[in-house]
Design goal:
The chain starts with a helix and ends with a helix. Helices cover 66% and strands 4% of the residues. The protein has five helices and two strands.
Length: 155
């Protein structure tokens, strides 16, 4: 009986430690900086769309400019269940409790995000060739469709 409890405790401890290590995003266990995220995004775009060196330099500057304003595939942190009615959020590092944003604040953030995304795409279109930009928009549509499909399956 005691041996069974010890084994269960060890199994739980191993699972928890695995979850902690899985959340780490780079070799040092630190979250990537916005500059590192912009660099990785630029490298991915360069290989996907066949960017020239001049285009790559311009896209890197653009990605750095919008790194804090748009999600660029970096560490997004833990997200709660969709549709949950959380009223407070606890910061994982400091333990401080923060009030959830109101619907007006969320609407304002959505509008800001939309304006930033449109500005980013406008500047990106000026850098890319027509064929590159067309491929980019097709990939974005496919990505959004995958996102919507996943969101529906989680409901």
């Amino acid at each position: 009986m005691i041996m069974k409890k010890i084994m269960m405790t060890l199994a739980v401890a191993l699972m928890l430690s695995g979850a902690v290590f899985a959340q780490r995003s780079n070799k040092n266990g630190e979250r990537p900086t916005q500059e590192q995220i912009a660099q990785r995004m630029t490298e991915r775009m360069a290989s996907t769309y066949g960017l020239t060196d001049a285009q790559k330099t311009k896209v890197l500057a653009l990605n750095k400019k919008y790194a804090g304003k748009l999600p660029m595939g970096g560490f997004r942190g833990g997200r709660g269940a969709r549709g949950s009615q959380q009223t407070a959020k606890t910061d994982a590092q400091t333990g401080a409790t923060q009030q959830a944003p109101s619907s007006e604040e969320r609407a304002k953030r959505r509008q800001e995000m939309k304006a930033n995304r449109e500005a980013y795409q406008k500047e990106l279109k000026a850098i890319f060739t027509d064929a590159q930009y067309q491929k980019y928009t097709e990939n974005e549509k496919a990505r959004m469709q995958r996102h919507q499909t996943r969101a529906k399956s989680q409901e």
